Amino acid sequence: MTVHFRPGHSDTVSLTDEAPSRERERLLIVSNRLPVTVAMKDGAPSAQRSVGGLATALRSAHTEPGGLWIGWPGSLDSLTERDRADVLRQLHAMRVAPVSLSRKEIKVFYDHIANGVLWPICHDRLDSLPLRITGWDVYERVNERFADVVADHYRPGDLVWVHDYQLMRLPALLRKRIPEARIGFFMHVPFPNPEIFFTLPVRKWLVEGMLGADVIGFHTRRFRGHFTAALRRLFGIEMEADATIRHDGRRVDLGIFPISVDAADIARRASEREITNSVLDFRSNAQRLLLGIDRLDYSKGIPRRMLAFERLLTDHPEWRERVRLVQVAVPSRGNVSAYRRFRREVDALVGRINGQFATPTWVPVHYMYRGVPQTQLLSLYRTADVMLVTPMRDGMNLVAKEFVASRSDEEGVLILSELAGAADELLDAVIVNPYDVDGMAEAMHLALTMDAGERGRRMRALRAQVSANDVHRWCSGFLEALKGSRAKIG
Ligand code: ADQ
Q1: 43 vs 298: CA distance, rounded Å
Q2: Residue 467 · residue 409 · CB < 8 Å
Q3: pTM (whole model) above 0.90
């Protein structure tokens, strides 16, 4: 195998030399971040496969013969020429093709537009928008760069699956380059209500970008409904009975594909002795455990969850010294000012609650501002009496499903926000309105006092739902729709 640089696409490695035959349907996955992390190990750069999220969801599709993942590998700027070539060789062996982005592009495309504008818009947070928005030209340029790299690797018959809000323009840009390609686009975040989405001056241009796809996937019916409402207002088109629309002489499928987790794998790992032993250690102090696991993101509802816990301790003082909240928050998007402000807000709330209620032998909120390894995550899921998943808005929320999948002991209660996509499926959770602090405090009390029969009944129903609709079903459902999309054209 030879690794060579293509002019104009500095980090693109050719993977054509060992590719399978032309007839085989290959899958090209495209996402902003590659499912790898490059770090220095013993003085040499090493590319490691990431775990969790999309990396896990698409692992088997990616490792199919000919599978290729295209995306940004993180900045390689600090590496020497030799180390960079070494990393590119490692990435090639992992069947990933890097798209190189400059520091300035990352700042504008990723930090400013994707995370500073599109993320808050998709999570109903108009108040978090910058007063003046610039940088759409850079967003377009970066999407063009992705399109170039995909086109470089594309061969007739390939399926191209584009992921998420960072790449909303990519389907149309690809369609221009490869008119006959089968292109899918999956929106991992909510498509917002058009009243909110239409505040963006570039609303039509973004939707036109998505419409370059043959199949557009959403987690829930509600998000697809928002999208079709936007289509009606922008183009006067209606979705037909078979969930397709006609646009620009083509048909586009609008599908519902709720993402999930590898339920069987989680259940197996959560039952290993290492995990069950640590659960006994965690439980030894006889206090009940409420658990929150989130990226530290303002959409995840951490402040109101804390206030609800504070209310629980105020309205039901019998829980003092008998219950604790473990909140694990993985640092996220520290380059965006709204996230830095948010971090300070959470720090202050934790301090206030602990200052008010702690005793020499009890601290009500255990706050961990870091990611935790998979084994610890599973131990926490298995130990929790009550899992708190209370986002203000969430596309799906995989934490809720990971918790359910890990509870092969059929114990634990899930409190779930009605504004998480997962609430459309996990009907046997205790469903709450995340804006209703007092209601959430009562839900905590209810969950802590729920009898064993009711807990078991709910958990069994939740587990049946998650195992019947796991991540493999999500992945194959989307790919089947994409393969079938051609049949509808004409
Ligand atoms: P996210 O907003 O990142 O994903 P989520 O679906 O909850 O949210 O996934 C988070 C993942 O990170 C989970 O796998 C979880 O285990 C892990 N994680 C979270 N906190 C952690 C911690 N402190 N330590 C270790 N691991 C942690 C986006 C959308 C979601 C959608 C997914 C997939 O915002 O709505 O469900 O994509 O489509």
Answers
A1: 37
A2: no
A3: yes
Question: Position 70: which residue type?
Answer: I
Q: Which one, of 49, 70, 197, lies nearest residue 142 by Cα?
A: 70
56 CA closest ligand 1 atom index:
14
Give the residue from 342, 347, 350 showing the smallest Cα distance to 297.
Answer: 342
Residues with a CB atom less than 6 Å from ligand 1: 52-53, 188-189, 259, 293-295, 328-330, 371-372, 377, 394-399, 402
Place of tokens 């999220």: 53
Closest CA to 70 of 150, 6, 187: 150
For 86-95, the pLDDT digits (tens) are 999 999 999 9
Beta bridge partners of 256: 218
Q: pLDDT tens digits, residue range 153-191?
A: 999 999 999 999 999 999 999 999 999 999 999 999 999
SS3 349: helix
Helix ranges, 321-433 (H): 337-357, 374-383, 398-406
Say how many C-beta atoms besides its own lie within 10 A of residue 369's C-beta: 14
Can you say whether residue 246 is alpha, beta or left, with left for phi > 0 and alpha for psi between -120 and 50 degrees? beta
Task: Name the burial class of residue 274, with classes exposed (0-12), middle (13-18) and buried (19+) by CB atoms within 10 angstroms of its CB.
Answer: exposed
